[in-house]
Predict the structure of WD repeat and FYVE domain-containing protein 3-like.
Amino acid sequence: MKINIIYCLTDRDHRTIYVGDSRGRVFSWSVTDQPGRAVADHWVKDEGGENCVDCGVRFSFAERRHHCRNCGQLFCSRCSRFESQINRLRILRPVRVCQACFNILRAQQMSEALEVSS
């Protein structure tokens, strides 16, 4: 997915970075004093997505938005039905992820398991 960045701002304390793209979506990341010890806020704002990133279904009262806990993009319930732990964010219990992230995380976990066993 290609994102054309229109603007990049920080808050007054330089702890949150906001990036806007040409489609009107806003992404934000939190900066911490303890890198690697706090989970970064990297979710797309609800207002930043009208449709599922994967299948394109329009969100409504009946079709809710769901965030992939790994990439932060907005998906419908069908496209975000997968679950995985996310080691880099220190999320050790299975949480909602999209199919692309599920495949990536599963491959990483299998690779890590092979390294440990050899």
User: Anything to note?
Assistant: The longest helix spans residues 99-117.
